[in-house]
Amino acid sequence: MSTVNPYKGRYIIKTGQTSGFGIVEFIDAPATVYLRNDSNGTVYYSPDFETKGAIMVTADILSHGALMSDTDSLQLDETITTVPLDIQSDSSIIADFDTPNAITINQDGLYRVDALVAAQATEDADVTLSVNNNGIPVNNMTQIISMSTSETVTFALTNFVHLVANDTLTLIMQSNTDTTINFPDGTGAILSVQQIS
User: Fold this and answer.
1) DSSP letters for 123-178
2) What is the CATH number of the domain that holds 85?
3) Choice between 74 and 9, residue whose per-residue pLDDT is larger
4) 42, 90, 168, 189: which has the highest count of C-beta atoms within 10 A?
């Protein structure tokens, strides 16, 4: 059985709703994948939801990759703003990252698309996060959260999307009022794709 060191997420906010992804290569079968609390604290599950945690594993990924952001803050208003994504994943099979802040798809197929953003707002605001494909929001990949001043919230989007070669994915945000979005130290935003078929 394959044995690897724990794969620790780069997402540092560990309160409220948390999610993430990982791209791991297994050389030998069988292998066991599981979620584990590696912190020194106790994890408490919400009493309001039947599902307390979940893990999904996919294999034979033909095309994959991710972009992340270590931007400190972002000014938002009613204008659509592209989230800066300037850090490439350690592993990727993507046509290119030549378009700034975007992932360009290299072949037609069905893809799992994930977006994750953790942020605080300096003013109370209704903030929208969307995944755009060629400048158009992807169906069912938009989330609106009413953010309170200085409260850390997590935006999390996941969907399976049919994409074609040269499609360009970006993360966009906007707000119903002027506000500054502050991101945590480390990785504050992630956009990832994994080809399923």
Assistant:
1) S-EEEEEEEEETTEEEEEEEEEEEEPBT-EEEEEEEEEEEE-TT-EEEEEEEESS-
2) 2.60.120.40
3) 74
4) 189
Comparison of pLDDT for 114 and 27, the residue scoring more: 114
Residue 177 in domain? yes
Range of the domain at 125: 64-195
Residue 145 lies in a domain: yes
Burial label, 21 (beta-carbon count in 10 A; 0-12, 13-18, 19+)? middle
pLDDT at res. 1? 43
Cα 195 from Cα 197, distance rounded (Å): 6
Q: Which tokens sit at 92?
A: 């990727």
CA 45 to chain centroid, in Å, comes to: 22
User: Mean pLDDT of all residues in the chain?
Assistant: 84
- 97: in domain: yes
Element (H, E) at 88: strand 87-88
Q: Per-residue pLDDT tens for 63-89?
A: 888 999 989 999 999 999 999 999 998
In a domain, 123, yes or no: yes
Structure tokens given for 130: 């969307």
Q: Domains in the chain: how many in total?
A: 1
